[in-house]
Amino acid sequence: MQPTVASKAGEVRIVDSRNFPVSKKVAAGLLIIKPGHMREIHWHPNAAEWQYWISGKGRMTVFFPVDNARTMDYNTNDVGFVPPTHLTISKTQVIPTWWSWSCSQLTSSWMFP
Fold first, then answer.
1. Which domain holds residue 38?
2. Would you tell me which of 13, 55, 61, 66 could form a disulfide with 71, CB atoms 3.0–4.6 Å apart?
3. Cα 44 to Cα 20: distance, rounded to the nearest angstrom
4. Among 80, 95, 92, CA closest to 32
């Protein structure tokens, strides 16, 4: 599958109802973010986000309501979870590859800065 979006910062391949019609409520993306780059800050107002880190390592910050945030470091074989309605931003130190999927409709832009 060719990348859905590619730039000098990385690439993403999206599987959702646009290219896999049976997938009505689940969207998945394979993301590769190059060292020193970030995935866009985004949120899913009606869906949780799950991540499985296939390779590499990186850091993700989840912003909770009322001046609260949590930053986690991820490595190969780690699983990340972001509850619905929380803002998320990710930054890498080495080239990570991870699957990210959401249940419900795809609501983030899946673009790189």
1. 5-103
2. 61
3. 20
4. 95
What CATH number corresponds to the domain at position 94? Answer: 2.60.120.10
Sheet holding 10-15, edge to edge: 5-7, 10-15, 26-33, 97-103, 49-55, 79-82
Instruction: Note whether residue 113 is domain-resident.
Output: no
Among residues 111, 79, 85, 87, the alpha carbon closest in space to that of 14 is found at 111
Q: Is residue 97 part of a domain?
A: yes
Number of domains present in the structure of the chain: 1
pLDDT 10s per residue in the chain (113 long)?
899 989 998 888 888 889 989 988 888 888 888 888 888 777 777 778 888 888 888 888 888 777 788 888 888 888 888 888 777 767 655 455 545 554 433 333 333 33
**Residue 33: how many other CB atoms lie within 10 Å:** 23
Residue 76 lies in a domain: yes
The sheet with strand 38-42 has its strands ordered as 38-42, 87-92, 57-64, 68-75
